[in-house]
Design goal:
The longest helix is centred in the middle third of the chain and has 18 residues. The N terminus and C terminus are likely disordered. Helix 2 links the parallel strand 3 and strand 4. The chain has 10 helices and 10 strands. It is an alpha/beta fold. Strands 1, 3, 4, 5, 8, 9 and 10 form a 7-stranded parallel sheet that branches. It has a 3-stranded parallel sheet with strand order 2-7-6, covered by helices on one side. The protein is globular. The protein has a single domain, classed as TIM Barrel (Alpha-Beta Barrel). The structure holds zinc ion. The site of zinc ion (ZN) has 6 residues, from loops. The site of zinc ion has 6 residues, from loops.
């Protein structure tokens, strides 16, 4: 959602735009997992987070976990994911696809109403390594604009590449735009068509190995929605703590700063792009 206000008030607005989420909000749920702390993320110069692909990750303590959900909003599954998170008083970060956000804006507004952080995941989930620099830039920028229009909170300048398929050119673009790029520390494999119990088992095994970290799910997957209540219980039982990440500056606040090299509008071909499949393929991440 756009707040067209003078830039002078942007700082104040930014501080109001992301509601703080603490475990204290959920004191009436004594048995809930809750949020142990809020981590403010500085997106200046486009930091890269997630040890699956990059050298560094978020500044997390052992056994701290950040839950992330890609590819939504979805009319059948996102609501179930939200319900599971709500029952455990947990806040997550969502990376919606632009054309999904446009089509299912009401679902996205349920995400924001629950106080989750919202980033972006391109306009139509194309493989960025196969696009020209101009087309890839348009995918990123149009994705952010569409999510921003559809959400009723100010979104975060948090970006995730479709299928985690990054490129040097688009990492450089993110750096110029001050978008944080999120890979992951732990994959749930929920895009591989596995069942809920396998999702829980693999996620917990990998979390134990990594001692916490960012976890990647898809709120478009029925198995994920089904797995989530059990997964959250398992996290609590094993002593993991949930960290809610929020940006230092919102996407809208950053947009008030002039940038260079960003095409104004998508091409006709991009506008008609039907290629979103709603699946991620993280099998071949770049190692660096
Ligand atoms: Zn995706």
């Amino acid at each position: 959602m756009r707040y067209r206000v003078a830039s002078l008030s942007m700082c104040a607005l930014a501080s109001l735009s992301v509601p703080p989420a603490t475990a204290s909000e959920c004191h009436h749920h004594e048995t809930a997992l809750g949020v142990s702390r809020v981590l403010h993320v500085d997106t200046t110069d486009g930091p890269l987070f997630g040890t699956l692909q990059y050298e560094q990750t978020l500044d997390l303590e052992p056994k701290e976990v950040v839950l992330t959900f890609d590819d939504g909003p979805h009319p059948y599954t996102t609501g179930r994911v939200l319900e599971a998170l709500r029952k455990e008083c947990v806040k997550a970060t969502f990376f919606p696809v632009g054309n999904m956000a446009e089509q299912y804006s009401q679902v996205l507004q349920e995400v924001s109403a629950d106080g989750h952080t919202i980033g972006a995941h391109t306009w139509s989930h194309r493989n960025m390594r196969r696009l020209s620099k101009a087309r890839a830039t348009q995918q990123i920028e149009r994705g952010f604009r569409a999510v921003d229009e559809a959400a009723d909170i100010q979104i975060a300048p948090f970006f995730r590449f479709p299928g985690l398929k990054d490129s040097k050119a688009m990492i450089a673009h993110a750096a110029r735009q001050n978008y944080a790029v999120f890979s992951t520390d732990v994959t749930s494999d929920d895009w591989r068509g596995i069942g809920p119990r396998t999702i829980i088992r693999r996620t917990m095994t990998r979390l134990r190995r990594q001692n916490g970290g960012i976890v990647l799910f898809h709120d478009t997957k029925r198995a994920t929605a089904t797995a989530l209540p059990g997964l959250l219980k398992a996290l609590k039982k094993d002593g993991y703590r949930i960290v809610h990440i929020v940006p230092h500056q919102t996407y809208d606040a950053l947009r008030d700063v002039p940038t260079t090299g960003v095409p104004e509008a998508a091409t006709v071909a991009d506008l008609k792009d039907p290629s979103h499949t709603g699946t991620d393929d993280a099998r071949a991440p770049i190692k660096r």
